[in-house]
Amino acid sequence: MSTLEVKDLHVSIEGKNILKGVNLKLATGEIHAIMGPNGTGKSTLSEAIMGNPAYKVDQGEILLDGENILDLPVDERARAGLFLAMQYPAEIPGVTNAEFIRGAINARRAEDNPISVRNFLKKLDKTMSFLDMTEEMADRYLNEGFSGGEKKRNEILQLMMIEPKFAILDEIDSGLDIDALKVVSKGVNEMRGQDFGSLIITHYQRLLNYIVPDVVHVMMDGRIVAQGGPELAKQLEDEGYAGLRDELGLDIKLTDEDA
């Protein structure tokens, strides 16, 4: 079993404090969800875990299997088994989808033991078929000209091909229609098992109808203020964040949209 633990994490960007003492622990074999209002720090948490240098860690630790990874650059964190499916995946002209994925797989293998072309193509074809992706997607430049749904589906393709220890899925459901949401969820559920854990960041209960989490964390004002089982997400859907805020007696201002 592997573990990913965030301890008393304080993070700022451009001098503004965003995370104000986040604590959570995730193990392989578990799916955790983080929900919360806009601007509360959910995406900041994902970027800090992955090592985006624009986000300054002012205090705390990020531990992967007990080792603090704060000094590791992004590529070393990826090699160690972390994966981030981004809310807005970047376009990379000149690099095909297949080239990118094979390079990412080999980056986590010994230099003298790359995945063979035959085995790679066999796995790629099988995974793309599972995700209802056309064969031509493999030869298109990474995310260039992709629709929003294609980009999100492509992130799950990368996830299933690379097979990290832990995947952070930052609003993977954003902008998806119900059919695309079902396919993306199918991919994540296929990965569930004792060698894989995931931290899913979402605003909405609907994703959690398809990927049922073991634990739900609620973030407000840069902190985790509540956690529970899947029923907590349903409570938020019924009562909104304002209801939970008032129940907890928190002095936090919410936008009309989040309330």
Automatic annotation (TrEMBL):
UniProt keyword terms in alphabetical order: ATP-binding, Nucleotide-binding
Gene Ontology molecular function terms on file: ATP binding; ATP hydrolysis activity
Signal peptide residues on this chain, from the entry's feature table: none
Stored SUPFAM superfamilies: P-loop containing nucleoside triphosphate hydrolases
Domain spans labelled ABC transporter: 4-246
Family: Belongs to the ABC transporter superfamily. Ycf16 family.
PANTHER family: ABC TRANSPORTER I FAMILY MEMBER 6, CHLOROPLASTIC (PTHR43204)
UniProt name for this protein: Fe-S cluster assembly ATPase SufC
Lineage of producing organism: Bacteria, Bacillati, Bacillota, Bacilli, Lactobacillales
